[in-house]
Design a protein that fits this description.
The chain is mainly alpha-helical and about 80 residues long. Helix content is about 40%, strand content about 0%. The protein is globular, with a radius of gyration of 14 Å.
Amino acid sequence: MRLRWCTDYWKVKPIRKFMAHNNISECIIAFAYDERHRATNNQNLYPLIEEKITRDNCKKIISNANLSIPRKSGCFF
């Protein structure tokens, strides 16, 4: 899988460094079911995918908790 440099630099490398420094073998990643193709590491846990919770379902859950919907993350230039 090819990653954008910003994803690798700002997300993947810091998470791996933190896990290695703290002797953590697995991590919870919150990919929505719509993006299940991104779940490539068997060492991680993907609860939203396991429960088939889509991005729209996430928005409903957040709204029902009276919280504001965060903007979609991603790099831009």
